[in-house]
Here is the input.
Amino acid sequence: MIQFLLNDRLITERELDPNLTVLNYLRGQQQRRGTKEGCASGDCGACTVTLGKVVDGQMQYQAVNSCLTLVSSLQGKQLITVEDLKQGRELHSVQQAMVDCHGSQCGYCTPGFVMSLFTLQKNSAGWDRHQAEQALAGNLCRCTGYRPIMDAAQQACEQPDADAFSANAPALVQRLQALSNDEVQIIEAAGSRCYLPKTVAQLAELYQQHPEARLVAGGTDLTLKITQQYQRLPLLIALDQVDELKVCHEDETHLYLGAAASLHHCYQFLAQHIPAFSSMLERFASLQIRNQGTLGGNIGNASPIGDCAPMLLALNARLVLQQGEKRREVPLDQFFIAYRQTVLLPGEFIRSITIAKVTVSPNFAAWKVAKRLDDDISAVFAAINLQIEEGVIVEARLAFGGMAATPKRALAAEAQLLGQPLNLSAIEKACSALSEDFQPLSDFRASADYRLQVARNLLRRYYAQASGELTITEVSRYVS
Here is the structure.
């Protein structure tokens, strides 16, 4: 059984198929058809809804893709759809802004834009163009050309009206807190079951008992098996309620990132510690995806084109793995063993990721090369971390995604840099050695020759940036 608020109405679901997405639940069981399906893969934003939850005694709102969010994620939260926004007989201020600024034409994408705008308004202290671009980057429109929608975003942020959500916030906090409990919850129907543990100990026990279960954290990758491949997942263990796995913190020597920390939370935490890492997370995917997707999930799925693994490899990160009550530490460069295969044992999961502060060079840099600036998958991802003392490279860690069956360090190229001054001659030798490290494949994203050339050019780019010789114009954001 799970319980949540559909706007302000308490919903108790005793039998629910855990393979059901929030989108299909809304449209099929709640007859709320304002939320649209455009892609079923988290790319278009037409299905965007807002989830409210209690954080430190206050309501916090996040936009998510309902097409990739499984119903288990609703436990203890408030679900808000476009039907809930009207204020009596009046439009909500974000809806009125879309009308005033002519932000809708065919209208199919409009509910998703409205919900992203609503969440932006709740999370902003005024108009900030970059924040608005990030909030709307996951919503696609084929009609308006976006300028009127950005105008609507500006009006909504500059002229927010008091609404029922703000007025009812104290009562909502109390109602949602009353839904929390410490017991393992279960939802099941149609031959599938999902466990919702609340603690790491409960998770470890369940996963030992059911090592065949699939762990679902944000679900932004796993749910594609349901929506794109039409598979059924008979047994799931949802991590969303295990708050211990979401904590990011530091001590004097290390940074600790919870495996179930969302990518957006990691972005916020790492901004002051590793700005280049944080900056790349802005390009990982849309904000809707980053609100749900987790760091541990991006590592655990062992994708060769995941964006986080190359950066963590370059930073010499270590994973804390847990199986039952046993824990062990594994260097990330020993975690991936083949395409989509890792050293994880049956019933073992990633608990946290550790980065030693001493390995974070001020010269750390990362670049993602893809066909689009936002919301796209890497053709090549490079992370470069050089430690330089008295003009000589004393430690080199070069890691790449999209170049092999797994995210991988370039050991031959690293060897060419060690003990050398950071100059063009050393960089060119490292570039030549990349062909020893990688024999990339050709696919629809890029050819093998292109990938190898891009990897070499990113090494040259690193040198040009570090030496101050970078004279080309680097496009880092769209023209406003």
